C-alpha cells in the first residue's frame, strides 16, 4: 500500500483505506510504504512525520513495512524493534534517482539496506540509462552475499529485464490501472511471458496414469491452472494399464508428478520412495510428487473427497448428527474401494460391509478394514442387511456395475 499516493493521509483515512484493501484483497499480506520525494515518491515531510505515518501501519498490524535506509537512526530503530516484537517484517530500501552507481556502489547500498540485520528484505532501486544496468543490479545483488532476500531493480524502459530477473516481491502493475506506479513497471502477465520464453520458469511434466483417461477433465483443469499462475508445466495423460509404461514417464528427469487412476492405484505403490500416512493405511495411491531431492512421494487424497461428500450428505439428511450405529456398504475391491473404506472408518462407521463379485477379493478387503465381506448376487446381499445409511460405489461405469436399483432415488 503506497501511503504517499493517497489523497488523504490522516490516521483515520489510512485506517479506512487499509480496511478496504484487506476486504478487497481477501486478507492478503499488506506491504505498507511511505515513499519520499527524494526516493521517487510524493512524501515531502520530515522524518518525524515519516515515522508517524509508518506508526499507523505498524499499529494496524500490516505484515510488512518498507522503511528507507537513508532515515536509519535511533527513532527508526525503536520502530523496527517494536515491529519485530509484533512479528512485522521490515523491507530496508534505497532508491537512487541519479546516475546508476557502480556495481560496488549498488552492493554497498544493499548491505546498508539490511539495517544491521534487522531487515527481512533488502531493496535497491536505481535508474537504468542503458540495457546493461538491468544486469548490473542483478550481479551486484549476487555479489553482496546478503543474509536476507533482496529486491534489485533498475527503473525505466532499459531496466525492464531487472524485473524479469528479480525473484522477491517484484513490484508489478496491472492493465486495469490508469498508470504504472514506477517507470518500466510490468504486469505479472508480461513478466511471466518473458520468463517462459527464455526458459526461466520451472518446466515439469505431469500426467494422469491409468485407463480410461480420454474423458478426464484433469488435463484441462491443471493446464489452465499452470497458465493462470505463469508456470511452464504441462499436464497430459498416459493411457495404460501397464506399470512398466507408467514408469517410463515417471523416471524421466522432467517428471514433476501425477495423478493415478484405475487400475494402477495399488500397482504403482511399491515404486514410491515414501508413502504418506493415508497411503500406507489405505494401501493405494492417487498422487505422485517428485521431491526436490529426487525422491518419489506418494499420497492418497481420494479418501478426503469421499469423506467430505459423505459428511455433507449426512449433515443434510440427519441435521448434523450421524446415526449412532452408522452402517455403510462399499462396492468394489480396488484402490478406490480401499480409500472409501478408510473414509468411512474416519466418519465413524460402526458397521462396514464390502461387496465384490469375487469372494476372495471381498474377503481380502474386509480383512484389511475389519469389514464384513459380501459376494454373489448384489441385490440379495443388500437385501439381507439390517440397515444401510451410506453406500459408496467404486465400480467403474465401463464395468457395467453399480448400486442396486432399489437403493436409487426416483427420477
Précis, in short:
With 411 residues, this protein is α/β, with parallel strands linked by helices.
Give your account of this protein's structure.
By secondary structure, the protein is α/β, with parallel strands linked by helices. The protein is 36% helix and 18% strand. It contains 14 helices and 15 strands. The strands form three sheets. The chain has a six-stranded mixed sheet, sandwiched between helices. It has a five-stranded parallel sheet with strand order 1-2-3-4-5. Strands 14-13-12-15 form a four-stranded parallel sheet, with helices on one face. β4, α5 and β5 form a beta-alpha-beta unit. The longest helix has 17 residues. The radius of gyration is 29 Å and the shape is elongated. 32% of the residues are buried. The mean pLDDT is 92.
Per-chain topology:
Blueprint: H1 11-24, E1 31-33, H2 47-59, E2 64-68, H3 74-85, E3 89-95, H4 103-112, E4 121-127, H5 132-144, E5 150-155, H6 160-165, H7 188-198, E6 205-210, H8 218-228, E7 234-239, H9 243-250, E8 255-260, E9 274-275, H10 277-282, E10 287-290, E11 296-299, H11 302-318, E12 327-331, H12 335-346, E13 351-355, H13 359-369, E14 372-374, H14 378-383, E15 390-393
Parallel strand pairs: 1-2, 2-3, 3-4, 4-5, 6-7, 6-8, 9-11, 12-13, 12-15, 13-14
Antiparallel strand pairs: 8-10, 10-11
Helix pairs in contact: 4-5, 11-12
Amino acid at each position: 500500500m503506497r501511503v504517499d499516493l493517497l489523497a488523504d493521509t490522516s490516521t483515520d483515512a489510512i485506517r479506512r483505506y487499509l480496511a478496504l484493501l484487506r476486504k478487497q484483497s481477501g486478507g492478503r499480506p499488506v506491504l505498507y510504504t511511505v515513499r519520499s520525494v527524494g526516493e521517487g515518491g510524493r512524501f515531502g515531510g520530515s522524518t518525524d512525520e515519516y515515522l508517524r505515518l509508518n506508526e499507523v501501519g505498524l499499529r494496524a498490524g500490516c505484515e510488512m513495512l518498507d522503511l528507507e535506509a537513508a532515515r536509519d537512526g535511533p527513532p527508526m530503530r525503536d520502530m523496527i524493534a517494536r515491529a519485530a516484537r509484533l512479528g512485522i517484517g521490515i523491507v530496508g530500501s534505497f532508491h537512487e534517482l541519479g546516475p546508476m552507481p557502480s556495481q560496488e556502489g549498488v552492493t554497498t547500498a544493499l548491505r546498508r539496506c539490511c539495517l544491521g540485520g534487522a531487515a527481512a528484505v533488502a531493496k535497491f532501486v536505481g535508474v537504468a540509462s542503458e540495457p546493461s544496468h538491468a544486469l548490473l543490479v542483478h550481479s551486484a545483488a549476487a555479489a553482496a552475499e546478503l543474509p536476507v532476500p533482496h529486491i534489485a531493480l533498475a527503473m525505466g524502459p532499459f531496466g525492464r529485464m531487472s524485473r524479469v530477473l528479480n525473484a522477491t516481491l517484484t513490484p508489478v502493475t496491472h492493465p486495469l490501472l490508469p498508470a504504472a506506479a514506477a517507470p518500466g513497471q510490468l504486469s505479472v502477465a508480461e513478466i511471466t511471458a518473458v520468463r517462459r520464453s527464455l526458459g526461466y520458469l520451472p518446466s515439469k511434466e505431469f500426467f494422469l496414469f491409468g485407463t480410461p483417461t480420454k474423458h478426464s477433465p484433469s488435463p484441462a483443469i491443471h493446464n489452465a491452472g499452470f497458465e493462470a499462475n505463469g508456470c511452464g508445466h504441462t499436464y497430459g495423460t498416459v493411457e495404460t494399464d501397464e506399470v512398466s509404461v507408467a514408469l517410463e514417464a515417471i523416471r524421466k528427469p522432467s517428471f514433476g508428478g501425477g495423478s493415478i487412476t484405475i487400475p494402477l492405484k495399488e500397482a504403482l505403490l511399491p515404486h514410491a520412495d515414501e508413502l504418506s500416512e493415508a497411503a500406507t493405511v489405505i494401501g493405494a495411491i492417487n498422487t505422485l510428487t517428485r521431491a526436490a531431492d529426487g525422491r518419489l512421494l506418494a499420497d492418497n487424497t481420494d479418501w478426503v473427497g469421499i469423506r467430505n461428500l459423505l459428511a455433507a450428505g449426512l449433515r443434510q439428511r440427519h441435521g448434523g448428527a450421524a446415526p449412532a450405529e452408522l452402517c455403510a456398504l462399499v462396492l468394489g475391491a480396488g484402490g478406490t474401494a480401499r480409500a472409501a473404506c478408510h473414509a468411512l472408518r474416519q466418519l465413524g462407521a460402526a458397521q462396514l460391509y464390502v461387496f465384490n463379485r469375487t469372494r476372495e477379493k471381498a474377503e481380502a478387503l474386509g480383512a484389511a478394514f475389519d469389514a464384513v465381506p459380501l459376494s454373489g448376487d448384489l441385490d440379495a446381499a443388500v437385501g439381507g442387511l439390517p440397515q444401510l445409511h451410506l453406500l459408496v460405489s467404486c465400480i467403474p461405469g465401463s464395468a457395467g456395475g453399480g448400486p442396486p436399483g432399489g437403493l436409487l432415488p426416483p427420477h
